[in-house]
Amino acid sequence: MRNAILFFILVFSAASGFAQKKWTLQECIQRALDENIQVRQAQLDVAAAALDKSDAEGNFLPTLNANASISENTGLNFDPTSNLATTTQFLSASGGINTSYNLFDGLRNFKQLQRAKLTALSAQYGYEKLEDDIALNVANGYLQVILNKENLNVLRSQNEVTQQQLQQTKDLVEGGVSPRGDLLEVQAQNANEVQNIVAAENAVQISLISLAQTLLIRDYKNFDIADGDYQIYGEEVLLKSPAEITDAAKEERYEVKIAENNLALAEKDVQIAKGASWPTLSAFFGYSTRYSEQDITNTFQEQLYLNDGISYGLRLNVPILNGFQTKNNIRRSKIAADRAAINLEQAQLDLESNVYQAYLDAQGALKAYEAAQTAVESQELAFSYSQDRYEVGLINAFNFSQAKQRYDNAQIDLNRAKYDYIFKLKVLELYFGVPVEELKF
């Protein structure tokens, strides 16, 4: 019983520790990379490509095979040692070893090895691109949670002001200084703010659930992220011209690398297809021996020595006619190569367009952020001024609530502009070649 209680305490402590855990952005990204199904599939693609490369390397090695057989012969059979027909029941055995080596195959083995290396590189590029995409997606989801929490904090903070205003208005109405309509206005404003707080709380929970699903975490109730004041880093990338960022992106981004690698693969396939029209030359060597119970004059070892044989030589195969298959395969490979070249051109154009769009988006986000900062400063002054005037009865509750609502909205707009600017800066930094693990938030 005592052990059971201790076990329960340990399990409960461990569960409580997990419930209290708050995930950092780096931990979320690492969790996504470790658990994401697409990442695990991409890892298998990399492993499979490595095996294909090993197969291609193995084609340069000679083949070596051994064989052995033993049989009991009844009725009319040929004696393997004398090659004479006999009807006597007898035991016979044979064995051998054969090896061959490809001397020339139109350089197809060499080209296949080059192709396997390109395939392995393509799988690696795809894996690393997927990691970047997932990391950026997680960062976006994480920032969305932060934004929703910031908005919730703004609404709660401003509602505290409304609560104070509500009590103050009650006192003024009861003292006969303000009309009852002012109290009704403030009560309506408070009800509206409470409703907005509930909606903001739901938005936080929904964004947390969405992020947890991305991380394949099913304990939605206890999942939360670490609180922090996320600052703006990486603004120096905006000092670069779009052309500079585009040039860096062409060198660093996997979209273009994958398209370039696909073109190299297609060109290699053309070379392999052409190799099929060349003659092939291989060398072979074989050794065999046999034993028969019919031979009663020689022992087992003597028979193996007397009945052995060696064969060796060269084998030449010249393709002459195969129903146009070789020519058509070459043509298909050339078409595929032309298509890959077009895809590379399209990938470069798409990348250039995406970089310019990301650059303009980041610049626009910066302007929106600066405008939102100015708006908050102005609305804060206007709200403070309205609050002073309301307290001395120069404006009614409706006008004051309007000023407060504009200030609340300005703060929410500032939060949205800030995190939108942060995210778009990160996108631009990725295009410029900053690794995901080096992005600062």
From TrEMBL:
Q: Which residues form the signal peptide?
A: 1-19
Coiled-coil stretches are 249-276
Q: What's one GO MF term for it?
A: porin activity
One GO term describing the cellular component: cell outer membrane
**Keywords per UniProt:** Cell outer membrane, Coiled coil, Membrane, Signal, Transmembrane, Transmembrane beta strand, Transport
Q: Would you say which domain of life the source belongs to?
A: Bacteria
Q: Per the record's keyword annotation, is Ligase included, yes or no? A: no
Family matches, as Pfam families: OEP (PF02321)
Keyword Transmembrane among UniProt keywords? yes
User: Where in the cell does this protein reside?
Assistant: Cell outer membrane
> To which protein family does this belong?
Belongs to the outer membrane factor (OMF) (TC 1.B.17) family.
**Protein name as catalogued:** Putative outer membrane transport/efflux protein
